[in-house]
Amino acid sequence: MSHPKRKLFVTLSILPFIVGAFLLLSLWTPVSGSEHHTLIRSSCSSTLYPDVCFSAISSSSVPSWEMKTPKDVIRVALEHTVLSTQHNYFNIKKKLASRALLTVRERTALHDCLNMVDQSLDELRATLHDLQDYPNTNRSIAQYADDLQTLLSAAMTNQESCLDGFSHDRGDKKVRQSLLTGQMHVFRMCSNSLAMIKNMTDTDMAERRSILEIKEHKLPGRELGAEEEGNTRGWPKWLSAGNRRLLQATTVTPDITVAADGSGNYRTVAAAVAAAPEGSTRRFIIRIKAGVYRENVEIPKKKTNLMFVGDGRTTTIITGSRNVVDGSTTFNSATVERKKNLK
Ligand SMILES: *[C@@H]1O[C@H](CO)[C@@H](O)[C@H](O)[C@H]1NC(C)=O
Ligand SMILES: *[C@@H]1O[C@H](CO)[C@@H](O)[C@H](O)[C@H]1NC(C)=O
């Protein structure tokens, strides 16, 4: 008779542990799960398309508990965007391979799209690479913000430019329609990543600034030293209001400028492209001043890391005779980044 009692006793003495373990599990799992979803939600809340953002990131193969910082969330968003862009690329390629029912114009526009999507892939990968580096003391946070935003704005613009190639006449609309969902998804995801990156770099800059302000208050006699330290890291002087504004501004410094009126280094985009280095590992920025450029711009793939900065969609216009003759789209495989997007 003593055996069943002992069994019961043993069971009873283990029971609290089992119950405890269950309680812990039932409490722990959902709390930590939703906590990590909270990070995704709060990251996405600073974007223009929060629902697209949240569903893309939470459906990623990366489990949400592995995303511990806003930077992790942005990385996952960008990886998702790369996959979507690859999907679009193969979709366009497939359309080109099927010989059915494409006009010359549609074929040309699809080719241009393919180039732009390819370029976007390079830009997205470069963004991921830069993000992985961040924050490294080689570049100031403001410089990172600038570089990352420039790359993503360019990738974003390409999605629109691809679709713009089809909007000229009604016949094209069917092809445009078939690309629309994929292109718009990448466009929105680029916009979302842009917003999250801006939030992250703004937050980090504000933090650094407040750390420096505290330092400054404690060591009023070391103003010059603090400035020198700032300058060697490539940071602007922190504490004057003017420089603070400078710090927050996201202006791109071009390597060369094209101006139709002769006020730049070159008068034509083609001449600027010819002057750009081949196989550059550093971004080479060509600013195209407002004006109308009647030329066809072909960018050889060897000209890596080339970036075009327009003065705005309506003020910098590139039109080539090919547009009229065989229906080429406005800007073949290039990236015109609009400053207005850098917000
Ligand atoms: C930072 O700069 C140093 C010297 O300029 C260079 O050797 C190093 O490779 C740079 N690091 C990164 C991550 O760019
Ligand atoms: C970043 O996003 C969070 C969540 O939307 C917001 O509360 C915070 O103010 C943002 N920070 C900056 C610097 O924009």
TrEMBL record:
Keywords: Aspartyl esterase, Cell wall, Cell wall biogenesis/degradation, Disulfide bond, Glycoprotein, Hydrolase, Secreted, Signal. GO terms for molecular function: enzyme inhibitor activity; pectinesterase activity. It is found in: Secreted, Cell wall. Pfam families: Pectinesterase (PF01095), PMEI (PF04043). Pathway: Glycan metabolism; pectin degradation; 2-dehydro-3-deoxy-D-gluconate from pectin: step 1/5. InterPro entries: Invertase/methylesterase_inhib (IPR035513), Pectin_lyas_fold (IPR012334), Pectin_lyase_fold/virulence (IPR011050), Pectinesterase_cat (IPR000070), Pectinesterase_inhib_dom (IPR006501), Pectinesterase_Tyr_AS (IPR018040). NCBIfam families: PME_inhib. This is Pectinesterase.
